[in-house]
Request: fold
Amino acid sequence: MNTIQTIRFGIIGTGSIAQRFVSGLAQVPDAQAVAVFNRTASKANQFAELNQIPNVYLSLDELLASDIDAVYIATPHPSHAALSIAALNAGKAVLCEKPAAVSLAELGEVIATAQAMQRLYMEAMKPPFFPLYQTIRERIAAGAIGDVKFIRAGFANPTIPAGHAVLDPAQAGGGLLDIGIYAAFLAVDWLGAASEVQSLGRIGATGVDTFASWQSQHASGISQLYCGLDVAGSGEALISGSKGYVLIHDKWWNPARATLVTASGEREELAHAPIGSGLNYETAHFCDLLRNGLLESPVLPHAKTRAALQMTLHARNALGHV
Reply:
């Protein structure tokens, strides 16, 4: 049992997702942001002032040498692995935004470092920690829809402004690693790792995937997934079983409403509106793991992080990403 009471976070990055994380901390008992790092002084100071964070660091080494228990990494995708490794080597627990890495080799190095340093590492994949998702898991575990055999999920948003990071190949942009990774997680969570992936899609003018449709064979069934940046698409998800199905309504990765339908046609409406920014649920879980001395989440183990990344990268490679 860890003796840590209040978990002291150092925030790496000062963008919108970092702001959502810090806002969510207000809903997490005994956790607080005590430090922030950004190499640009104006950004670091503005973020710290807005969120009443007492310590500002313009050097990563100084942040990692400070009196913090964990870091939350909220920087562009290509930096995730290197920052995670640096923090783990400094003896800090790591909660890293998705995707955990942009290659399987990078992810392997992160996980190996976490194991060698005996430090907690978790990808910040938020859906499984929402109360509604947990309710769905409980209902399915109780046999409400039988054995899960099929997953369908996706989302597409054509309103991305020019110059956004998701359109920049240098920042590992594209729909697959940004929003498609959520759908890949859903498939892996219910069906296991993919053994075969078939992909179609297109690369846009900036050189990133602007639409992808991929279907996969898994240990327990089949998934059909899509994501896009140049068309509009709903954010629903279907979990289909041998005796019924669950439809998680838009946007499924921030689950608030779902409909459970049995094979006989009986319908049950499930609802649990999230509180806070939504990131508070994954953070509370991470803090509990840290307090209890655990090195890996039983809800989101490293194997699931790897399996979701692997099928996403397979689709990216099939579309022409290198």
Remarks:
- The CA atoms of residues 70 and 286 lie 10 Å apart.
